[in-house]
Amino acid sequence: MSTETRPRNIGRNISRIRELRGMKQGALADAIGTSQQTISSIETSETVDFEKLVQIAKALGVTVEAIENFTEESVFNFFNNFYDNSSSQGNSFNQGMYATFNPLDKVVELYERLVQAEKEKVEYLEKLLKK
After folding, report:
1. What is the band of 1 on the pLDDT scale with cuts at 50, 70, 90?
2. Which of 6-10, 44-48, 85-89, 125-129 has the lowest mean pLDDT?
3. Number of domains present in the structure of the chain
4. Are residues 42 and 79 in the same domain?
5. Beta strands in 42-102 (DSSP E)
6. What is the sign of the dihedral through the CA atoms of 31, 70, 24 and 42?
7. Residue 50's closest CA among 10, 12, 88?
8. Which residues neighbour 39 within 8 Å (Cβ) at sequence distance 6 or greater?
9. Global pTM value
10. For residue 2, is it within any domain?
11. What is the domain range of residue 47?
């Protein structure tokens, strides 16, 4: 087993952050004044020109460092820390307020509803095909 670390894939990080922000490639392209095909090419690249990276970071609302150091684990840590900290007492931001839901539960609920909607579409289309 090797202790060598894999180089970070900046393009993949951009893609994941863009997806997490709910942004399409075309919207990101418009925000930085380029084409969707260019964004697609950037997202498959291991490295990105620094000036372009600065533009992309600004459009995504994150720092260049956030893109460079992005990991899936960091997203889960953020949500876990957010949930843990939002139910704590005594800080000036949420005095006496408690979180009533886990954000990850809401994401799971959304996906379950989307899957159900897709199943209903498939059933409807199968009925149409049988007629």
Report:
1. very low
2. 85-89
3. 2
4. no
5. none
6. positive
7. 10
8. 25, 26, 28, 29
9. 0.55
10. no
11. 10-68
Q: Which tens digits make up the pLDDT trace of 24-48?
A: 999 999 999 999 999 999 999 998 9
Phi, psi of 101 (to 5 degrees): -150, 160
Neighbours of 118 (CB within 10 A): 10
pLDDT in tens, 42-99: 999 998 999 999 999 999 988 898 898 888 776 666 556 655 554 444 444 545 555 5
The structure tokens listed for 78 are: 């953020």
In the chain, the amino acid numbered 62 is V
27: nearest Cα among 77, 61, 75, 63: 61
Q: How many residues does the chain have?
A: 131
CB atoms within 10 A of CB 67: 21
Please name the amino acid found at residue 53: L
- Beta-carbon contacts of residue 16 (< 8 Å; ≥ 6 apart): 70, 72
Domain of 27, CATH number, reads 1.10.260.40
Q: Which percentage of the chain shows pLDDT scores above 90?
A: 44
CB 17: neighbour CB atoms within 10 A? Answer: 20
Q: What is the distance, to the nearest Å, from the Cα of residue 76 to the centroid of all Cα atoms in its chain? A: 11
